[in-house]
Design brief:
heterodimer, A: 558 residues, alpha+beta, Immunoglobulin-like, Methylamine Dehydrogenase, Chain H, 3 domains, eight-stranded antiparallel beta sheet, five-stranded mixed beta sheet, 9 helices, 37 strands, 35% strand, B: 133 residues, 2 domains, three-stranded antiparallel beta sheet, 3 helices, 7 strands, 20% helix, globular
Amino acid sequence: MTSTPMRRHVIAGLLLGGLIAISAVVLSARAPAQAETPAIAGEVSSAQEGSMEGVLISVQKAGTPISVTVVSDANGRFRVPPAKLSPGHYTLRIRAVGYDLDGPQAVTVPSRQAESLRLGLRKSEDLAAQLTNTEWLMSMPGTAEQKRPLIECMSCHTLERIVRSKFNAEEFAPVLRRMANYANNTTMARVQVRVAEREVPDERVRKVAAYLATVNLSAGPIWSYPLKTLSRPSGRAARVVITEYDLPRPTIAPHDVRTDRDGLIWYSNFVEPFLGRLDPRTGKHAEFAVPVLKPSFPTGALALEPDADGNWWLAQMFQSGLAKFDIRTRRFEMFPIPPEMNGEATQQSMVMPGRSHADGKVWTNEVSKQALLRLDLASGRYETFEPFAGLGAGRTHSPYGLAADPENNLYFMDFGDESVGRVDAKTGAVTLYPTPTPGSRPRRTMLDSRGRLWFAEFAADKVAMFDIKRETFKEWDVPTPHTYPYDVFLDRNGELWSGSMSSDRILRFDPETGAALEYLLPRQTNIRRVFIDDTTTPVTFWAGNNHGAAIVKLEPLE
Amino acid sequence: MTERSMNRTIKAGVVGFVALGFGCSLAATALAGGSTLDDGDNHAYYFGSVKDTNGAAVVNAKVKVQTKTIALMTQSDITGAYKLPILATQANPDDVTFSCSKDGYRQIDVLRRSAPGGDGKDPIEIDCTLQHE
């Protein structure tokens, strides 16, 4: 009888010891794993809303140019994928219009704190500093006609700059005249002046100046109208990881961004004479100097397009002509516009070398003459095509986005007006197809393998498709008014992607079902060309932040 | 100054701009005047309808206005109507050919209802008749 309780003690003691031993094994197994896979995760909330969905949380490791952004889910939870992190100190940023991050804005990885962050947001004291260009255009009173000129301003700066100004109408007039003489490849970090002066009709200046003075701070310290905001992302639009690669100088203005066969990123620099390259795996950045042929003229290139051999072609803007970067020799071959065609306003914004194997020709445009040019590679000569010469006067035309079919017949967007055009490679015959929406100002384009031309209708807030065999159009409204889409890209799944200079949002759109979602970007992002890397699953979206000196990668999680 | 000559002045002034590539500032739209983004009513255009021999609208017929150097092409809408920008050579009807087509149909008649000539500001109505094959 006495032995029984004793035995029980012994058994209990053995059991306890066993549990401790097992726990110790579990703990020792966890500890090193923790150090190898650092985590940043947690919840985000505010006094006003409780748990918050659609808040962008960005983390950037100290001393690196790479930021990673995730979006909180319906329960306010977020998690940065461990593969995107390594041990070190990280700064934290958030984006949720109307809110600022309250509390610590840095975290060490790995740490217990970083694994379960509780981010509290407080109401922002300066909502105006958080508005996108789209939100300003939504907020401003005025007619569509009055607001329309502002979409040009976004090429160089945000609308916040205009609405915070204090100029009255009279003071605005000389500002507007000055702006008209800046090159379109101007940013706040690098202003470039046109060599050929542009005259601005008085009546136009007066009208625009009068309107701008009603939406800025000329009448008092606050705006006379309420500031409207777009809703935060939710659902699928929150299932994304965004990586931003800051470039080493604020003056770098990435315009067209593309990947090559090795997964390296190449971009055109809109204001400086360099072709840029980024290795997204290491963050390593390189630049290749483009020869400057017109030293007193604005520098920088717009379109970046590969030929069939993978060499890069740049449209040289006010430097005029085309530059070819040989991918093997790493040398530039220059194709200047000959002197008799090369004036003070000469400007090549576009290039299409993709089908040059068909006939030895590369297409480009001559912006100052509303014309198209075709370079003969064998002779270096350019021929001029004037696609609008047969049209009645009184309308403005500008050949812009270019695409070529396998025979090197050209398709072009009339960005000044409302047509898709075609130039027959053999006969030079021009056909214009007005878009169903008048005044659409089609901008950049791509031709898919099924003979469908996809393009952005900048002034119509639409994306569109032109079937080159059937000669028929389809158009779709973008979900957010005042987006002003610049470009589109059709991915391998048949989904269409688009970006703009105004909304800081990336559109993903299924033309079959009409389903659309918009991913919000972490910072003000002036987007031009958009590009999809179809070699990943899901696909990967790439673009440049033209005013923000950064390359943006967007990886949808589904 | 008439509205028309005003437009010409503006156009001459903005040739560089429209240009743009990107129009910084007010360039393209603001200053291109009524040229680009107005409702189109300030300028002449071709308009009309495509019908079958029973007078019923033919939807999605291709409509083409063509000179030796340029062609304009569009499609008829759900009411059989179409609209196209004008060609500079419109004053000389011999230089312009007009046609309509659709699979399963053949063109049997093109009727220009507006008088040729004029000052180039008036819309020109051209109707087309297709017959089932």
